[in-house]
Amino acid sequence: MDLADQSRSEPTTKVVIPSDLAAAKQSEEIILDHVRRCGYSQDATFAIKLAMEEALTNAIKHGNRSDPTKRITICYAVSSQKTVINVADEGGGFRLDDVPDPTRDENLDCPTGRGIMLMRAYMNHVHYNRKGNEVTMVKLNEARPGAQA
Amino acid sequence: VNGPPQTLAIETQRESGATVVALRGSAGPGCARQLRPALTDLLQQGCQQIVLDLADLQSIGSEGLGSLVAAQLRARNCGSTIKLLNPNAQIRQLLEQAGLTQLFAIYANLREAISA
């Protein structure tokens, strides 16, 4: 799915940050500020915060392996109807099918997969590109009539 | 989720034979550096019953959840247990989504958590 398709006429902002959790947190706060001003519920804001943290942490740690020469590109569009966030890293990607299901008993102590599971649980739509180094997430503002994924 | 970004604060006290660990703020990316050694230390000190008071925890992500899971599995191996107290509705739902209510007992009050 293309971010342009998701955001339609909403203006999209692009931010490029280093592979650094502090820089990620700054970007998260800017996006969350937009989200709050667009009247999303506390639960929806919590969901977007959680999903962004997971996507950016995955991009920094697993995608770019915290390589300071690599960058993370964040594209986002926030409207009163929906929030679309795209996070891309410069890593080699991964196969979604290779990620274990962290909710299965045998995988409880497995350190991977829980972040992706949470993103999927909390956002209305989560899509990875074929390479696995770019994720697009959509959250609808369900308090607003006419919100569509 | 309002206001500036929060960090994690960990405060430990003894209560009726249990160790109560209050987690405050946000257990987001990077929290494992604080949370894992704090819980590991308590287990190494021989704390048999650890109650994590989540009443003032605003959010927790996969890294925080992973730290709790690792600590609980370690606790089981040394005959201890970790219980959760008073998570807010969002965190309780998150624990359910992550399939962790099978691993952690969740209580609404401290007396009940300690006596169970």
What does this structure look like?
The complex is a heterodimer of chains A (149) and B (116). With 149 residues, chain A is α+β, with helices and mostly antiparallel strands. Chain A is 36% helix and 21% strand. In chain A, a hairpin with a 5-residue loop joins strand 4 and strand 5. The radius of gyration of chain A is 15 Å and the shape is globular. Chain A starts with a helix and ends in a 9-residue tail after the last strand. The N terminus of chain B is likely disordered. Chain B is globular and about 30 Å long. Chain B has 116 residues and is α/β, with parallel strands linked by helices. The chains are: A alpha+beta (149), B alpha/beta (116).
Topology:
The complex is a heterodimer of chains A (149) and B (116).
Chain A: H1 3-7, E1 13-18, H2 21-37, H3 42-63, E2 71-78, E3 82-88, H4 114-122, E4 125-128, E5 134-140
Antiparallel strand pairs in A: 1-2, 2-3, 3-5, 4-5
Helix pairs in contact in A: 2-3, 3-4
Chain B: E1 8-15, E2 18-27, H1 32-44, E3 49-53, E4 57-60, H2 62-77, E5 81-85, H3 89-97, E6 106-107, H4 110-115
Parallel strand pairs in B: 2-3, 2-4, 3-5, 5-6
Antiparallel strand pairs in B: 1-2
Keywords:
heterodimer, A: 149 residues, alpha+beta, five-stranded antiparallel beta sheet, 4 helices, 5 strands, B: 116 residues, alpha/beta, six-stranded mixed beta sheet, 6 strands, disordered N terminus
Which structural class is indicated by helix and strand composition of chain A? alpha+beta
What is the N-to-C order of secondary-structure elements of chain A (H for helix, E for strand)? HEHHEEHEE
The main sheet of chain A comes to: 5 strands, antiparallel
Query: What is the percentage of strand-forming residues of chain A?
Result: 15-25%
* Shape descriptor of chain A: globular
Radius of gyration of chain B equals 13 Å
Determine Rg of chain A (CA atoms, Å). Answer: 15 Å
